[in-house]
Structures are given as structure tokens and as C-alpha cells.
Design a protein that fits this description.
Order of helices and strands of chain B: HEHEHHEHEHHEEHHH
Strand content of chain A: 5-15%
Low-confidence stretches of chain B: 1-7, 142-149
Mean pLDDT of chain B: 82
Number of helices of chain B: 10
Distance between the termini of chain B: 36 Å
Radius of gyration of chain B: 22 Å
CATH class of chain A: Alpha Beta
Structural class of chain B: alpha/beta
Helix content of chain A: 40-55%
Oligomer: heterodimer
Strand order of the largest sheet of chain B: 2-1-3-4
Distance between the termini of chain A: 18 Å
CATH architecture of chain A: 3-Layer(aba) Sandwich
Strand order of the largest sheet of chain A: 2-1-3-4
Number of helices of chain A: 6
Largest sheet of chain B: 4 strands, parallel
Low-confidence stretches of chain A: 1-21
């Protein structure tokens, strides 16, 4: 698998507490869908990881930039393992990371988490309910656990 | 939907996905506001990653309808999609051109949303709605397909459910027809050795407790066999 030298795209973000992610964060790529709650949950889960749970260890990149073939974004994705959070079975995030030559260490789908909460009303494409936030936090924790696992593997090797 | 309603012109809106930057969230939230509140009968959204990835439904809509793109930054991913794969867009908007520096300090996440975020989103949404009105006033008469649902982004459509019989009772499972179609397209047969893979895929859309797995496994296999015509 090709590996680039880039660390994070030039739009690389600053965590809410003002710290920047370290030089080689695990990239989290959420769904971009705006029609259903699933896309919103995937994005908010990603932000929970990058802004709150593991701001030094993970970062987000734009899926559209990746699909468009933006050089720096593709290189960033190729530079290390990625975690995708898809909102539907079309799995745009997972497929496009793989297509770009990136390694998907973990491919999550919001539907799998929602399925554990039969009858839950998580919200809409615009807002999450308390239940929706709870499920988003479950997804975020799963992502954060995988980030930790990947980082430990990195430090060992 | 009546045939008369099918003739109603619709304007497609493609939003920046922009997960990295606040302007991306502003774009998405503004588009949602237009779709839900401001111009619900005149607009539909197209999914940018699907469009860029070559989804024919999304691209066909863009070829036959006026499209407004709303981008979060000057890379203009949303605009480049239709212009690369279809033709010029009717309007190309950029958040920072509309609100200037007001987007600075806005939040990517809903958790950090403030009154300032809401005001910026409202400004952008109002501008999009104004452009929709202008296009419709200009007498845009886009070609419409017979099936109105064909014009709608995949992520706006309800997921079709399928039903199976478990322990003598009917159970509706979201996306079951899609699951069967996908597995069939991958050449999966309906043998006993495939039952676990089938169960795992369905569990992505429907909660199945450990105690229920055996019953679901048998029911799904039976339904999948019927789907394959076996």
C-alpha cells in the first residue's frame, strides 16, 4: 500500500482547547450525508473524538476533498491508518479511503449502533435528541478505543 | 404524487461536505434550513460524495435541473463536481463570500453552536433561498423525470424495509431488500455456510439479541433463498 509523507491536510484543525493534534494523528472520516440523522451522528461522533476525547491523537479530513483527489488529502490518508464512520450501506467514506489507497483500520456504520437501541428516536438531519447524542457518544468511544489501539501498536513498532 | 406535481420545477442544491472546517457545517446547516423550512417544495439536495464518486442518479439530476452549489472554502469541491461531470452550475456560492469574516469562530459541531452560528447559517440560507427564487423567476423549466423520487438524493429517501417470519411473527427489517441485492450482486449463495455472514450484515440495520440469533439466522436464510429464487 502506498504511503505518503504528509501528516494532515493543510486545513488541519485546531482542537477546541487550542491544542493542535500531534504530527501523525489517526484520521477519522465521517459520512457527508445531510438527508438523514445517520450522517449527522457520524459527524458529531467524529467531532467528539477529535475535539473532546482524543484531540491530540485524531483528526478529521473532508470526504469531498478526498473523493475529488486533492493531493494533500490523499497523501494524508495514505500516511496512516484511517477510521471511517458511514451513515448508510453505500459506505462512501470507507470505499473512498480504500480507493485513495488508504488503509481502513476500522469501518463503522451508525446503523449498527442504532440497531442496539431499537425504537430510539435519535433526531433528524439537523438536530440530535439526547438519545441521538448518547448513541453518537457510543460511536465516538468505539472510534477512540480504536485510535488508542492503533497508537499503542505504533509506539510498540 | 400526482402527475401535475411532477411538473413542478425543482432546484438541486449541493452542499460542501467540509468536515474539517466550520464553514462546511454552516453550508450543510444552511442547506437543511432551505430544504426543511424556507423552500421545501422547490428544492432537493444532491449528495456530494456520491456525485463525485460517479453516482448516475445524482449526475443525471444535475444534467437536467438547475443546480446551486454552496461551498465552505475556495477549493469549491461542490462546484467542481457538476462542472467536471455535467456542465456549469446555475449559481455557485461560497460561505465566506456571503458572510465574510463572520464565520470565524463558528463551530464545526452542533455542541458548540451559539447564537452567532445560527445567525450565520440564517444569512447563508436566506441567500440560497433568494437564488432559488431568482432561478424559478427566470423561468427555469427543467426536464423532469416521471418518477419524482428519482430526483431525490439517495440519503433523502426512506430506506425500504423487508419482512421475514421469525418464530411465527412478522418482523420488518430496514434495508433488507438492499442487503439481499448487495449480497446477491457479490455472488453470495444461500447455503448454510453463508447464514452467519447474512446475519451479521442484517445486524447492521436491525438489532438482534444473542438469544434471537439462531431464529433470525434460519429466517433470513430462508428469505434469502426465496429472494434468489431457490
Amino acid at each position: 500500500m502506498p504511503k505518503g509523507n504528509a501528516t494532515v491536510s493543510e486545513q488541519g484543525t485546531t482542537a477546541v482547547d487550542g491544542r493542535r493534534p500531534d504530527s501523525n494523528p489517526v484520521l477519522v472520516i465521517p459520512c457527508s450525508g445531510i438527508g438523514k440523522v445517520h450522517g449527522l451522528m457520524s459527524r458529531e461522533a467524529a467531532y467528539l473524538v477529535t475535539d473532546e476525547i482524543a484531540p491530540q491523537k485524531a483528526d478529521v479530513v473532508c470526504l469531498a476533498l478526498l473523493v475529488k483527489g486533492d493531493e494533500k488529502t490523499v497523501a494524508a490518508v495514505q500516511a496512516g491508518p484511517c477510521i471511517t464512520i458511514d451513515g448508510c450501506g453505500k459506505a462512501c467514506a470507507q470505499k473512498n479511503v480504500e480507493f485513495a489507497g488508504g488503509e481502513v483500520a476500522q469501518a463503522l456504520q451508525t446503523g449498527r449502533f442504532l440497531a442496539k437501541h431499537r425504537g430510539a428516536q435519535p433526531g433528524t438531519g439537523s438536530e440530535l435528541t439526547d438519545e441521538g447524542w448518547g448513541i453518537a457518544r457510543e460511536i465516538a468511544q468505539a472510534v477512540a478505543d480504536e485510535v488508542d489501539r492503533l497508537r499503542i501498536g505504533e509506539e510498540v513498532s | 404524487m400526482s402527475a401535475e406535481m411532477n411538473k413542478t420545477p425543482k432546484v438541486g442544491i449541493i452542499s460542501c461536505s467540509g468536515e474539517e472546517i466550520p464553514e462546511g457545517s454552516i453550508s450543510r446547516n444552511a442547506v437543511r434550513r432551505v430544504l426543511e423550512s424556507l423552500r421545501p417544495h422547490d428544492t432537493v439536495t444532491l449528495c456530494l460524495p456520491l456525485f463525485l464518486a460517479g453516482n448516475e442518479g445524482e449526475r443525471n439530476f444535475a444534467r437536467t435541473h438547475p443546480v446551486i452549489t454552496i461551498d465552505g472554502c475556495d477549493k469549491q469541491c461542490a462546484r467542481s463536481g457538476p462542472e467536471t461531470h455535467g456542465g456549469p452550475v446555475a449559481r455557485a456560492l461560497v460561505v465566506t463570500d456571503i458572510v465574510g469574516g463572520e464565520a470565524v469562530g463558528c463551530s464545526r459541531s452542533l455542541r458548540g453552536r451559539t447564537e452567532a452560528d445560527d445567525e450565520v447559517v440564517a444569512s447563508v440560507a436566506d441567500r440560497i433561498a433568494a437564488e432559488v427564487d431568482a432561478l424559478l423567476t427566470e423561468g427555469v423549466q427543467p426536464e423532469m423525470t416521471e418518477d419524482p423520487d428519482a430526483d431525490v438524493c439517495a440519503c433523502m429517501k426512506p430506506v425500504e424495509a423487508g419482512s421475514i417470519c421469525v418464530r411465527g411473527g412478522r418482523v420488518d427489517i430496514p434495508a433488507l431488500p438492499l442487503v439481499f441485492a448487495k449480497l446477491a450482486s457479490e455472488g453470495m449463495r444461500a447455503g448454510d455456510s453463508q447464514a452467519s455472514a447474512l446475519l451479521e450484515t442484517v445486524k447492521m440495520f436491525h438489532y438482534i439479541s444473542t438469544e434471537e440469533e439462531a431464529d433470525y439466522r434460519a429466517a433470513l436464510l430462508s428469505a434469502y433463498r426465496a429472494y434468489l429464487g431457490g
